[in-house]
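Design request, tokens follow.
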């Protein structure tokens, strides 16, 4: 029997977003949002970006990446230090895009927009957070 002394250390490897048009979505995320495109493989319905040390992938449903339908909340949140610059970048990329910065009840701010497939994004204004564990002062 294997003895385990510590729980395994996990790290987040990949976030995925379903899209209907891989090329158009890859262009939106690289040119509009400013994510760093790593590669696109049309025959597998996959495009991958590096975003703040995370891998973020776009995938066409049913081609191996998953089967979720495009649209709705992306179900995770990213943070960015300068939401104002990102807002202007998105407006320049697509003047018709509905995008804005909103004040939240907790005092924070989020930039909110939807991609061409209706995937809804909320990007929070990144701040340095201090995590306090029980027993810490």
């Amino acid at each position: 029997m294997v003895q385990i002394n510590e729980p395994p250390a996990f790290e987040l490897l990949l976030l995925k977003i379903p899209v209907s048009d891989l090329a158009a979505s890859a262009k939106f995320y690289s040119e509009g949002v400013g994510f760093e495109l790593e590669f696109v493989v049309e025959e597998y319905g996959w495009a991958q970006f590096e975003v703040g040390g995370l891998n973020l992938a776009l995938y066409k449903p049913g081609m191996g990446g998953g089967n979720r339908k495009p649209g709705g909340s992306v179900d995770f949140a990213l943070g960015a230090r300068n939401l104002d610059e990102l807002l202007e970048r998105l407006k320049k990329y697509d003047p018709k895009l509905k995008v804005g910065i909103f004040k939240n009840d907790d005092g924070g701010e989020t930039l909110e927009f939807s991609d061409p497939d209706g995937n809804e994004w909320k990007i929070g204004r990144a701040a340095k957070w201090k995590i306090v564990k029980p027993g810490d002062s």
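Comment from the thread starter after seeing the answer: thanks! The chain has a mean pLDDT of 89.
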